[in-house]
Queue: 4 jobs
Job 1
Amino acid sequence: MEEYFYPSSLEEAISLLEADKDIRPIAGGTEINLKHKDVDCLVDLGNLGLNYIKSCEGGVIIGATTTIADIEESPIIGQFKALHDAASCFTGSVKHLATIGGNIAESVASSDMAPPLIALGAKAVLVSSKGERVLPVYKIFRGLRKTSIKKGEILKEFFLPEESKDSKNTASSFQRLGRTEEDLSITSVAVRLTMERERIKDAGIGVGLAAPIPLKAVETEKFLRENGLLVERASEVLIKETNPRSSIRASREYRLMLEKSLFKRALLECGERLR
Ligand SMILES: Cc1cc2nc3c(=O)[nH]c(=O)nc-3n(C[C@H](O)[C@H](O)[C@H](O)COP(=O)(O)OP(=O)(O)OC[C@H]3O[C@@H](n4cnc5c(N)ncnc54)[C@H](O)[C@@H]3O)c2cc1C
C-alpha cells in the first residue's frame, strides 16, 4: 500500500476518495484486509463521527461506522429484533471491529446485516461532494462485491422506519444456519410482519445466500399481503423467487430446503412475538 489517510471530516474524506487513483474507504478493516490487499490507498473512516445509534423523526438512524457489537448492545436496536438477533450471530472479537457500513458496502450474499435491514425496510444515506442521496438498502447490492456506491461516495448512515419497530402490531425475526456457530451463514432469512385487525398489512422479507446478492423477496411479500399466513404456500413462492448456488459450504438443493425451513421458523417466531 502506498498511502493511508485518516481524515477528521466527511468533506476531507470525500475529496480524498474523489482522487483519480486506486483508493478505497476502510472502516473496521475485517474484509478489506483480507479481500482487497492490493489497493494502493486507503481512507480510514474511523474519525468521521459516524459511530452512533439515535432516534430521529420517524425512526432510528445508525451511523455507518457503528460496530456490530454496539448494535447488539443498543437498547434502541433491541426494539428491532431481527437486526438485534443478526448482530448477536457474529461471534468472537470480529464484532468489535466489523461495522454495519462495511458489511453492506462489501456486497456479499453472506452478509448477516443485509436480510434484517431489507426486511425492516431500511434506507441507506450516501454522501458525496454533490450532496446526499437515499436508497433502499436492497438497491445497494448490484452483484458480488459490486454496489451502487459511486466513486467518491461514502455510506453515511442507515434509517430504520418507526413502523418496523417490534410492537403490538409488528414483529420481526432473523434465522440463520452456519456449519458451526462461528462459521459464515449457509442461508439466512429475516421476516417482518405488520398486522392490522388480524390481517397482514405489510411484510418485509430479506434472504441471504439465496442469490449472488442479498435478496428482497418481493413476490413472497406480495403473496403474504394478499393471501395471509398460508405458510406452506408462501414458502413455495419463496423458493421459486430465489436462486442459490452450490458452494464449498452447501449445495443449492440443501440451501433451498434450508430457506424453506428458516422462513417457516421466522414466521413462527413473528407469530409468537405478536402474541
Ligand atoms: C473472522 C471473521 C468472522 C466474520 N463473521 C461474520 C458473520 O458472522 N457475519 C457476517 O455478516 N460477516 C462476518 N464477517 C465479515 C465481516 O466482518 C463483515 O462483512 C464486516 O461487517 C465488514 O465491515 P468492516 O467495517 O470490517 O469493513 P471493511 O473491511 O473496512 O470494508 C469492507 C468494504 O466496504 C467498504 N466500506 C466500508 N465502509 C464503507 C462506507 N461507510 N462507505 C463506503 N464504503 C465502505 C470498503 O471500502 C470495503 O470495500 C466475518 C469476518 C471475519 C474476518
Note: The chain has a mean pLDDT of 95.
Job 2
Amino acid sequence: MTRDHVDVAIVGGGPAGCAAGLSLRAHAPELTVALFEATAWESPRVGETLPPLARRLLEHLGVWDAFRGQGRHNIHREIHGTAAAWGAPEPQERPYLFATQGNGWHLDRAAFDALLAAEAERRGVTVLRQTRLRRAERTGTTWRLHPAKAAADAPRTARFLIDATGSAAAFARRCGARFVATDQLTAFARLFQEGESTDPGTLVEAFAGGWWYTAGLPGGLRIAACLTDADLARPMELGDPAGWDRQLAATESIRRRLQGARPTTPVLVRATPSRRLDPVTEGGEGGWLAVGDAASLFDPLSSQGILKGLRSGIFASYAVGDLLAKGDPAGLTRYARSVEGEFESYSRVRARYYAEEQRWPESAFWRRRVGA
Ligand SMILES: Cc1cc2nc3c(=O)[nH]c(=O)nc-3n(C[C@H](O)[C@H](O)[C@H](O)COP(=O)(O)OP(=O)(O)OC[C@H]3O[C@@H](n4cnc5c(N)ncnc54)[C@H](O)[C@@H]3O)c2cc1C
C-alpha cells in the first residue's frame, strides 16, 4: 500500500537496515516502516563470513528457515573455521578467530541481503528497491524525504530516520555526527573464479605490512584481499592489479590457495578502520539513529560485521519502537550505551589478537597495533 507518511524511514537495505525493519514489525507492529535501498542487490558484495552465533539472531528475526532454504540450494557454503598463519609462518587451524560454536557460512552476500529485505517486505515493511535517498530535511518533528528519482510508492515524510547506509553513515554525518577512528585499515579485494583449490575455508596470512585473507564463496567464486593502512598501501601500489599481484606473489599460503584462480574484478578498495560514530543517535520524535557499519566499523579480521549489523538493527528497533509507540525515549540512551560498550569490548579482543603477532616489531603496521 502506498503511504505518503510513515513512522520510520530506514535508509539502507544491508543486514542492519533489514534487521531493524524486521524487528520493528515484530516489536511495534502498529508503526509503519519504509526501507530505501539504492540497489536491487544485483551485484556481488564484499563481507562474506557469517559466524555460527548468527543462527540465534536469524531465529530471533524469524528468518532462519528461509536462510536454511537458501542453504539447501547451495546459495551459501558451510564452513568450519579458519586457518591462520598468524604469529608463525605455518597456518594453524582455528575454529574461529573471534567466535565459537558450530559451523559458519560463506555467504552469497547479495542473495543474503535480498532475502532479509524480502522477508521484511513479507511482514509489512515497504521496501523501495533501486531508490537511493538523496536528501532528508528535518522540519521540527518530521523528516521530509527526497529520493534521487521519483518513486510513486515512496513516502514523503517520516517521524524518525534510521541511518543504515553502511560505512558512509551519510545521514548521521549530515546531522553533525563524526567518526572516532583508531586506525586507517583499508581492504584491497578481488573476486576470482576458483582455480586448483576449492577449499572453502578462510585462510589468513600475516605479513610485515598487514595481512591477507582468502575464502571460497558460493558459485565457484573466491575472494582474496590484502589489508593494510591507507598510507602504507601507496608504496605497495595495491590499488593497481599489477602491484596487487606483486604483493600476492610475496605471500606463502595465500598465493598457493589462489593458484589457477582467474580474477573477475578489478581491485576493490574499501576503507575498514576500527571506529565508532559519535553520537549514534540524536533527538526524540523527528530524530535519527545509526545502525550497523554506520554506527561502528569493525576490523574484517573479526568476521563480526554482519552479526553486529543484525544485532544493532534489533536493539535499534526496541529503542525506536518504545519512542514512537509508547512515547518513551529512554531506549535511545540505552542503545547509545550498548554501541559504545560493544565497541570497547571489541577493541580489547582486537588488541589481544594483534598482540599474538610479534614477528615484525619494527614494521609501522604492527607497531601501531601491538601494544597500542
Ligand atoms: C574486505 C571486507 C571483508 C569483510 N568481511 C566480513 C566478514 O567476513 N564477515 C562479516 O560479518 N563482515 C565482514 N565485513 C564487514 C561487513 O561487510 C559489514 O559489516 C556489513 O556489510 C555491514 O552491514 P550494514 O547493513 O551496516 O551495511 P552495508 O552492508 O554496507 O549496507 C548498506 C546499504 O545501504 C545502501 N545505501 C547506502 N546509501 C544509501 C542511500 N542514500 N539510499 C538508499 N540506500 C543506500 C547500500 O546500497 C547498502 O545496501 C567485511 C568488510 C570488508 C570491507
Note: The pocket of flavin-adenine dinucleotide is lined by residues 11-17, 36-39, 46-49, 132-133, 164-166, 168, 170, 187, 189, 225, 270, 272, 292-293, 300, 303-307, 309 (CB under 6 Å).
Job 3
Amino acid sequence: MADKALRGMRLGTQSMETAAGAELAARRDVHYDCPNGHIVTLPFSVEADVPLSWECHCGALALLRDGDRPKDDNTKHQRTHWDMLLERRTIDELEELLEERLELLRAGRLG
Ligand SMILES: [Zn+2]
C-alpha cells in the first residue's frame, strides 16, 4: 500500500527535462500560421512527422507553413505512390507493363 502511494508521488514529480536535454540533436523550428494572425512556432526533431496543422493558443487551427515542409529525403515515414506500387509489383512486372503502355501509346491507341 505504502508502495503504491510512493510510486504515485514519483510519477507526479518526474519531469521530462533530463530526457529532453540528452537529445539536443537535429531540431528545427516549424511554423504554423493561425487564421487569426498568430504564428505558432514549435521545435520538432528533424526525424519527426510534422503534423499539417496545430491548434493555436486562441483555439483556431493553425496550418503548417508551406516552406516548413520537410524536403530532405531522409524522411522515410511517408510512403509514396511509388513505394505502394513496389509493394504490389516487381520492377520486372512494371517494366513489362510500361512496355505494353508504350506500345499502345506509339500505336496511337491511348488517350
Ligand atoms: Zn490564433
Note: Residues 91-106 form the longest helix (16 residues).
Job 4
Amino acid sequence: MPLQVRDLVVRIRGLGKVVVDGVNLEVGKGEIVALMGPNGSGKSSLAYTIMGHPRYEVVSGDIVVDGESIVGLSPEERSLKGLFLGFQNPVEVEGVKLSNLIIASYNKRIGERDLLKTSNPRIIVEINKYASILGLRRELLYRDVNVGFSGGERKRSEMLQALILNPRYVILDEPDSGLDVDGVKVIANAIETLRSRNTGVLLITHYTRILRYVKPSRVYVMVNGRIVEKGGYELAEKIDREGYSVYQ
Ligand SMILES: Nc1ncnc2c1ncn2[C@@H]1O[C@H](COP(=O)(O)OP(=O)(O)OP(=O)(O)O)[C@@H](O)[C@H]1O
Ligand SMILES: [Mg+2]
C-alpha cells in the first residue's frame, strides 16, 4: 500500500494563499518517485503539508499512508507512522547534539521510554557506519544539530537521520542542492539503500544529475501548485533540455 496524495488543496494558514492546488501523487514501497518544478511551484509546501507543518492548511483532499488518512495527525504522530522529511534548508538546533537527536528519535520509534538510552549497541555501530559511508566527520555527531554545519554537511546529516530511522516513506527536499560531485553520488547511494529496504522515496530535485544515479520509476512536474505532467525518467531529461516554459 502506498503513500497517496489525493486531490489535495492547501493554503497558507492566515494568508489564504493556495500553494497546492488539486495534487494527486503516489509513492509505492520500494519506489523512487521524483518531483520537479520551477522555483516557487509548491514542492516544499507539499512536502511540509505531508509532514503536518501547522502553517499549511489542508482545504480539501486527503493524504493517505498505507490506507489510513493522516491529515488529522500531528507531525510527531506522522513520524511514528514512518514518515520522514529531509528539509531543503535544515534548521540549526542549539543545545541538541546530532548524536543525541538521532538516538532519541530512534528510541522513540522503537518505543523505548528512556530516550537517551544507548545500551542497544546496534544504534552506535549504525550511526558510525552510516556517518562514515556518507562522509560525515565523526566530530559533527557531537556538535549541536546543524550549528555551523556547511550546506553539504547539513544534507549528509539529514540523510544519516533517514538511514538510522528507517522510515516507511521518506520525502527528500532537494537532498542534492549545494553538494559537490562526490556528495551527489554518496546521497544517491543512500537513497538506493533506502529503496532497497523497501522504503518509498519522494525525491524533490532540480537536477537530472542525481536522477541518473537513482533512476526514478516516475517523474512528476509541478507548476503553480498543480501537477502538469507525469512520465518516466525521460521527462526529467526533457526538462533539462527545454526548461519549464512550455508549462507556463
Ligand atoms: N509560510 C509561507 N508564507 C508565505 N508564503 C509561502 C509560505 N510557504 C510558501 N509560500 C509561497 O508559496 C509558494 C511555493 O513555495 P514553495 O517553497 O513550496 O516552492 P518550491 O517549489 O519548493 O520552490 P523552490 O524550488 O524554490 O524550493 C511560493 O510563492 C512561496 O513564497
Ligand atoms: Mg522548495
Note: The pocket of adenosine-5'-triphosphate (ligand 1) is lined by residues 12, 15, 17, 19, 37, 39-45, 55, 88 (CB under 6 Å).
